[in-house]
Amino acid sequence: MPKSKRNRPVTLSKTKKKGKEHKEAIVNSIRQAIDNYNSIYVFSFENMRNLKFKEFREQLKSTSRFFLGSNKVMQISLGRSIADEVRPGIHKVSKILRGNAGLYFTNLPKEEVERLFEQYEEYDFARTGSTATEKVELKEGPLDQFTHEMEPFLRKQGMPVRLNKGVVELVSDFVVCEEGEPLSPESSRILRLLGIKMATFRLHLICRWSPDDFELYKEGLDLSDVESS
């Protein structure tokens, strides 16, 4: 009887782990970027979409570089205090690196960066757990946008549907989601089928550092607290 391929041993030495060497490479890359670019920005993001972010990054790769990952590793790269900062005042950037944030290095003028980030937004389908931005309700009657093959799937999503002479129809009004409420897995699937996009991928500037200046963009942050830390 032939041996199952599932039972074949795997040599762990052939696998790669993101350990100390990977972290050191990130630290070195960030410190090199400090030398190569005029300004550093901390940015936050909402409704991150990796493919969209990659496209935005490619658009700016000739003048800029982005870093996303462990905030702690990025903080170490810059220096977390006056005693270990790699450039005067750059530890202030580390203090701002919290939560969903990243580093943006660039040679673009400040005004151009602000314009790019302010204007950038991409719409996409909301994921499970996201907050509905509007109420979506379907009225009783035929659903011409769906083929008859979709009827079993729609029923599994909790929709009160039936086939009537090969046409999918709702037997009663159905609320897909309520504004301000988190989306269920079923609601997010139905919204996708309906082509309704409720998620907006945005990037927000939080602060800017250059050898001659440090500036906060985000409201609620106290510059004096950052400077005294």
UniProtKB/TrEMBL annotation:
Question: Where are the residues of the annotated region Disordered?
Answer: 1-22
Keyword presence, Cytoplasm: yes
Q: Where does the record place it? A: Cytoplasm; Nucleus, Nucleolus
Please tell me the species this chain comes from. Answer: Nelumbo nucifera (Sacred lotus)
Q: What does it do?
A: Component of the ribosome assembly machinery. Nuclear paralog of the ribosomal protein P0, it binds pre-60S subunits at an early stage of assembly in the nucleolus, and is replaced by P0 in cytoplasmic pre-60S subunits and mature 80S ribosomes.
Q: What is this protein called?
A: Ribosome assembly factor mrt4
Subunit and partners: Associates with the pre-60S ribosomal particle.
Among the GO biological process terms of this entry, one is:
ribosomal large subunit biogenesis
Which family does this protein fall into? Belongs to the universal ribosomal protein uL10 family.
Its gene? LOC104602543
Q: Where is the composition biased (Basic residues)?
A: 1-20
> What keyword terms does UniProt attach to this protein?
Cytoplasm, Nucleus, Ribosome biogenesis
| Cellular component GO terms, alphabetical | cytoplasm; nucleolus; preribosome, large subunit precursor
Where the record annotates domain Large ribosomal subunit protein uL10-like insertion, the positions are 126-196
Q: What is its main location?
A: cytoplasm
